Amino acid sequence: METSDQCREVYAYFGLAMYRAQCVEQSVIQLLVFFDFFHKHSETYESVEQWEKDFDEYDRALSRKTMGRLIRKLKELKNIDNELEASLSLTLQKRNWLAHTYFFDRASDFISENGRTKMLEELQATIDIFNKVEDTLAPITKELCDKYGLTETVLDKIQQQMYEDANGDL
Fold first, then answer.
1. Three-state SS for 2?
2. Blockwise average pLDDT, block size 10, the chain, 170 residues
3. DSSP assignment, residue 169?
4. DSSP category for residue 97
5. 60-76 burial string, b = 16+ CB within 10 Å, else e?
6. In 3D, which of 97, 80, 92 has the Cα closest to residue 31?
7. Beta-carbon neighbour count of residue 52 at 10 Å?
8. What is the pTM (predicted TM-score) of this model?
9. DSSP secondary structure string for all residues of 136-153
10. Residue 101: how many CA atoms within 13 Å on its side-chain side?
């Protein structure tokens, strides 16, 4: 493999790793919406407009929080077990490392083919960690969706409407 191709591949794997970290972060936000917002508001709202306003406000507040604060809030709600808590802590550690010091820490590795190969393996292992956490969170989210009436049919309709509104071509 040419040097430039391998460099591009490192950047691509890094991008995929950061994307997967963001997917985990969004899954944590979804769980907080169900465990906190839905739990507190699902039976008390008086109008759809008020529900939407309160939901949007809650979602904006969550979106301003760091991943660490989101995970801490999820832990405080005591709806996750110790194993998942440890997995989320590892995810946070890996995500922060990628976001803040990965390329600085690997500067010497990046200048050699063997080093870049090591980086690719390391990034793949990190992606695998994020994927495993996602695989753990997804069924929890699905169960909560079902509990609150967000069935596959409802979610499909929402997704279709989003595509139509965006003039998407997927």
1. coil
2. 90 97 94 86 78 88 93 88 93 97 96 96 98 94 84 80 74
3. -
4. H
5. eebeebebeebbebbee
6. 80
7. 11
8. 0.85
9. HHHHHHHHHHHHTT--HH
10. 5
